[in-house]
Amino acid sequence: MEKNKIRILYVDDEVNNLKAFKATFRRDYKIFLADSADEGRNILLQEDIDIIITDQRMPKENGVDFLESIIPMHPDPMRILLTGYTDIQAVIDAINKGKVYHYLTKPWEEDYLRTVVKNAFEVFSLRKENKQLTDSLLKANDQLEFLLRQNLLS
Asked: Nearest Cα to 123, choosing from 21, 6, 10, 22?
């Protein structure tokens, strides 16, 4: 069962938020916690993560900057930004720079967050399946071209 669970990385500098998140969602998801952007990056190097949820306001590096920084090495996980503030520039940056799938305000509402995670994972799964199908199609096309060249040469 553990293998099939959605793998979520939650990054927040407030330890109480990390504990509350894990206590709420540990039965449903495989949870990884980080109390800084750097720790989040370390976890991403060691674990396959499906969804990243990060707080926007953190001391050394805000959530948008963290999300933007991981795109080159980790483009696939879905990104969700949490904030206790309604800062329209943060929302715009989140969408444009951090490629954020969803923006939530704190405190998060459990059922709504579950729905957002479920929907994000559906998009993640469809993108992954689409990539696999495209790769298979390209491989089959290469094989057909090879066979065609062989037939033309003989």
From this structure: 6
Single out the residue of 123, 46, 37 nearest to residue 78, CA to CA.
123
Q: What is the dihedral of CA 133, 134, 140, 146, to 10 degrees?
A: -170
| Cα→Cα distances 4→7, 48, 121, 150, Å | 9, 12, 12, 44
Check if the beta carbon of residue 70 is closer than 8 Å to that of residue 45.
no
Distance CA 49, CA 60 (A): 23
What is the reported pLDDT for 21? Answer: 95
State the average pLDDT over residues 41-59: 95
Distance, CA of 20 to chain centre: 20
- Does residue 126 register a pLDDT over 60? yes
Q: Which position has the token pair 């094989």?
A: 143
Q: How many Cβ atoms are within 10 Å of 56's Cβ, its own excluded?
A: 26
